[in-house]
Specification:
104 residues; four-stranded antiparallel β-sheet; 27% strand
Amino acid sequence: MSLDFNFSKIEGYDWDKGNLGHIKKHNIDYKECEEIFFNKPLFISKDEEHSKIEERLKVLGITNSNKLIFLSLTIRNNKIRVVTARIQNKKERVRFKKMGGEED
């Protein structure tokens, strides 16, 4: 089930050497992370397991080039801060497709 997320207070993205370096290890570009928020479908859910210090969200989305990616993120100072980004695994792709997503 997708969380009905309110984007009205989001002011942009929070990128620095730490999270940019981490997503690069997974062959994901920061632009791909940003563009999934403008593409449909987009599925957002709470990540209860990793929300010990701050609330984390899990996102399944699709890039402009039809790459299916998974994001883990948090919201800091009204900005989206990507914690990690990678290609969706098999289980996530099945879920994405079931929820209306496209195949890669």
